């Protein structure tokens, strides 16, 4: 479907949606893997005063990173769902327009 000088190809939108879903899944898996690795190390910064400061700082940064990476993965999935919906809507609109044009053509030629 061509609209305002650009062409909409629903399958291309679906392919992009699949890529976003894959990227979101991969980000989520990699982040989980990193968290598991780091948690498996225990508290390598130690329990002395400096170690406690490092541990507190690390925990705060990890929480922010967790929010960021988890949110980005969720956003990618949400964008993928929206791209799929756009592809579906364009296909439905095109099918409807073809049906309407066919009806008008039949009425004019019939």
Automatic annotation (TrEMBL):
Q: Which organism is it from?
A: Actinomadura rudentiformis
From the Swiss-Prot or TrEMBL record, give the protein name: PE domain-containing protein
Occurrences of domain PE (ranges): 8-96
Annotated coiled-coil positions are: none
Tell me which Pfam families the record gives: PE
